[in-house]
Design a protein that fits this description.
Elements: E1 5-6, E2 14-18, E3 21-25, E4 30-34, H1 43-54, E5 62-63, E6 73-78, E7 81-91, E8 97-107, E9 110-119, H2 129-138, E10 143-144
Antiparallel strand pairs: 1-10, 2-3, 3-4, 4-9, 5-7, 6-7, 7-8, 8-9
């Protein structure tokens, strides 16, 4: 896309753009890539801020503890830059338990928040294996676009 990133998407997936957010979906699993500039000085603080903003949008919102740390927001290196991982569960209007992972990071001055959601697994409240496999294959293909050079 011209939105500041590239990513490989399965041919059956669709995409839409709303403001600074690109939504990719197969109808069950969704990846939203938000290019809204982060407002906090570090990604863990940004994740905490977004959690406060987003909670009302997700019925049955419940944060998931990261492993192995007993923190809601994990500091992670993402694309060799300081980032954060934030996980939570929520329930759709049709009572489907969903798992949501959010990755927050900055590349070349561009802020990225990648939300990945899909049905939770049947027993252990983790991702459904089919959804996780697709997202796991897509995420490594993500690449932020550098600003155009002056040559």
């Amino acid at each position: 896309t011209k939105s500041g990133f590239t990513i490989d998407v399965p041919p059956t997936w669709t995409f839409s753009v709303t403001g600074k957010t690109v939504t990719l979906t197969d109808g069950t699993t969704t990846m939203e890539i938000d290019l809204t500039q982060h407002v906090k000085p570090d990604m863990v603080s940004e994740a905490e801020y977004l959690a406060g903003q987003d909670r009302a949008q997700f019925p049955g919102y419940q944060r998931v503890y990261g492993k192995p740390l007993k923190k809601y927001f994990l500091k992670e290196n993402i694309r060799e830059t300081p980032g954060a991982l934030w996980q939570f569960d929520w329930v759709t209007a049709s009572q489907v338990q969903m798992r949501e992972d959010a990755l927050l990071f900055t590349l070349a001055g561009q802020s990225y928040t990648i939300y990945m959601s899909g049905p939770a697994g049947p027993h252990d409240n983790t991702w459904n294996n089919d959804s996780l496999g697709t997202v796991t294959n897509m995420l490594p293909t993500f690449d932020g676009l550098s600003a155009p050079s002056s040559h």
